[in-house]
Amino acid sequence: MKIAVIGTGYVGLVTGACLSDLGNDVVCVDIDPAKINKLASGVATIYEPGLDEILKKNIRKARISFTTDIVKAIRASEVIFIAVGTPPDSKGKADLSAVRLVAKSIGENLNGYKVVINKSTVPVGSGDMVRSIIAENLREKHPFDVVSNPEFLREGSAIEDFMHPERIVIGADDRESVQKIRQIYEPLEAPIVVTDVKSAEIIKYASNAFLAVKISFINEIANFCELVDASVEAVSRGMGLDNRIGKQFLKAGIGYGGSCFPKDTLALYEKGREAGYEFRIVKAAIDVNEDKRQRFLEKILKALQKNGGSRVAVWGLAFKPNTDDMREAPSIAVIKGLLARGVSVAAYDPVSMEEAKKVFGDTISYGQAEEIIKGADALVILTDWNEFKQVDFELIKTSLNKPVVVDGRNIYNPQEMKDLGFKYYSVGRRDIQ
Ligand code: NAD
């Protein structure tokens, strides 16, 4: 099938690459010429396990191409995926300006029946908006359908998630477009939920908000555990083995980040208010998440004892392992908080150092994991990359100025850290002082 994917970021690029791998003829469009040039030469613009190989293979087979020419791409395709960003605006609502712009181009360049698939996360009612914009801008009269097909992939395992989804949601108001999308996804053999456009749009927000609530819930339990000297790890395990609850998203830490949960919870809350409903649970999840970073910052300051003039080594900057994405990473609030208190920071992340430089510039220094711990007053762990789990503790202890580790991801065992002679602070567990 001839497919255009408009917006070649995390979602668009993975969607385009995977659809080409399934044998489709895909053209990926972006407004950023630097991104398109890099991709056209076979170099992935994001870090995502497996993406490089799949890109190179399909470029070689001429099944995927990259362009900034949206007109040509629209005219050449029978199906158009919209995968542009929908970041929060100044009020927390989803900024739909890129979606509107793309819809206008589609209207202006429609040259036959096409199915327009909204893959971007957009608030309920956006499908109607896209349909109206296309209709208002038609230069030639052709039929078209607008469908919602929200994406559930997770950064860090995006290819795997796209190729083996737990479900595919199709929100459509007619049979022909449902058939078209079924055909695209048929090789994936995944359960398909077919519903109306509005319900599909809500499924995406409701899913993300639910997961955010689950994370904030266990983070509140962690706060409580710290006060009463219990272990959140044990509580999570005991809860998670109950199938009705499930183990996932029950890991206490320093709160959720990334490009989805923070913006989608806020956008759902704002959309609710617009409709005359206040999402109280979602609001509480947002508040707890913000408070969590603050609490962790206080924990580091307490562990340091003396703030001004101290220096900490930070391991992990990305919002989670296996991605270079720094959007809304908890590391940002924590590091900025440290800097504001006069603590200097040296940081290391296996893949997000370049992205981190765009956020912190030269307000912090950067180096390899072993380098930055030399002479630091504490080691602070902000992302649970696997490479931080098996480490040379003797080297850490002798490198640090004081044997202090503040772990926001609970990757070490408190008793073992005590036996090794560390002062060890973690989340929802007894601090070893
Ligand atoms: P992104 O910022 O990585 O990519 C968006 C891309 O769209 C950018 O490359 C940008 O240059 C391009 N773009 C912007 N305006 C354009 C225009 N007018 N024409 C062509 N290209 C344009 O964003 P993302 O993370 O891929 O997210 C895209 C959408 O998918 C968002 O709505 C997001 O909420 C949703 N989503 C993201 C994830 C995720 O894990 N990142 C998962 C599921 C859903």
Structure description:
There is one protein chain. This protein has helices at 10-21, 33-40, 51-60, 70-76, 97-109, 126-136, 158-163, 175-185, 197-228, 232-240, 261-275, 280-304, 330-340, 353-360, 369-372, 393-399, 414-419, and strands at residues 2-6, 25-29, 64-67, 79-82, 114-118, 144-148, 168-171, 192-195, 311-315, 344-348, 365-366, 378-381, 404-407, 423-425. It has a six-stranded parallel beta sheet, with helices on both faces. It is 45% helix and 14% strand. By secondary structure, the chain is α/β, with parallel strands linked by helices. It folds into two domains: 2-195, NAD(P)-binding Rossmann-like Domain (Rossmann fold); 240-425, NAD(P)-binding Rossmann-like Domain (Rossmann fold, 3-Layer(aba) Sandwich). Helix 1 (10-21) packs across helix 3, helix 4 packs across helix 5 and helix 9 crosses helix 11. Strand 5 (114-118), helix 6 and strand 6 form a beta-alpha-beta unit. The N and C termini lie far apart (62 Å). The chain binds nicotinamide-adenine-dinucleotide (NAD). Residues 6-12, 29-32, 35, 83-86, 98, 101-102, 120-121, 151, 153, 155, 259-260 line the site of nicotinamide-adenine-dinucleotide.
